[in-house]
Design brief:
By secondary structure, the protein is of the alpha+beta class. β6 and β7 form a beta hairpin. It is globular.
């Protein structure tokens, strides 16, 4: 009788536990599609198409895997990223974004690519949010990136830059491990380039 009575007392807790596990499973299943939908919607509102291969939750963080980034109406510039790690504050605002691995693809002459990007920026300049004074700039880091540029000149080989890295936080720097350019004027190879930038009142 005592055991039977104990089972009756424990039964509500067992039900609550099972319900909690079910809620966690449902939330885990729904997490990926919800994050993917929100990210794609917000990106599109800023003139960017996102194609996210996978989503993985973390502790105050989200990881996006196999993500393709395409500026709307700018086909000469595409970005494919292996991993995007987004860190959040306890209030779920963005704290830091890290890009790990991926490739930047440029297609066409330099003038054409620059014109596409300028037109893209001009079309959305009126919709951009003004930077609030005193608000901390979003930390942004990237490593393990490469750049491949096709069609820089007619008949020219692809121009390749590998080992690209950058940081925009308290320190601002960028660099790459190796770059190979082969154009009609000649060939150029550069290794281990690094640059640091100083903030100005204009940013």
């Amino acid at each position: 009788k005592q055991l039977r009575h104990s089972w009756k007392l424990d039964n509500p807790w067992r039900i609550a536990g099972a319900a909690a596990i079910a809620c966690i499973l449902i939330a885990g299943i729904a997490f990926g599609p919800v994050v993917r939908s929100v990210a794609m919607s917000r990106a599109r509102a800023r003139g960017v198409e996102l194609d996210i291969g996978g989503v993985r939750p973390g502790w105050f963080s989200v990881q996006l895997r196999d993500t393709a980034v395409q500026l709307i109406d700018a086909p000469g510039l595409q970005v494919k990223l292996d991993n995007i790690a987004v860190s959040l504050t306890p209030w779920l605002s963005l704290r830091e974004i890290e890009l790990h691995g991926g490739e930047i693809l440029l297609a066409g002459a330099a003038e054409s690519i620059v014109e596409q990007v300028q037109q893209w920026r001009a079309a959305r300049r009126g919709n951009s949010e003004p930077a609030a004074s005193g608000r901390a700039r979003l930390a942004l880091r990237g490593d393990g990136l490469s750049l491949r540029w096709s069609g820089a000149e007619a008949g020219a080989a692809d121009q390749v830059v590998s080992g690209i890295y950058f940081e925009r936080d308290e320190a601002q720097r960028a660099g790459f491990e190796q770059a190979k350019f082969q154009l009609a004027a000649g060939a150029l190879e550069i290794a281990q380039a690094d640059a640091e930038f100083v903030s100005t009142p204009d940013g």
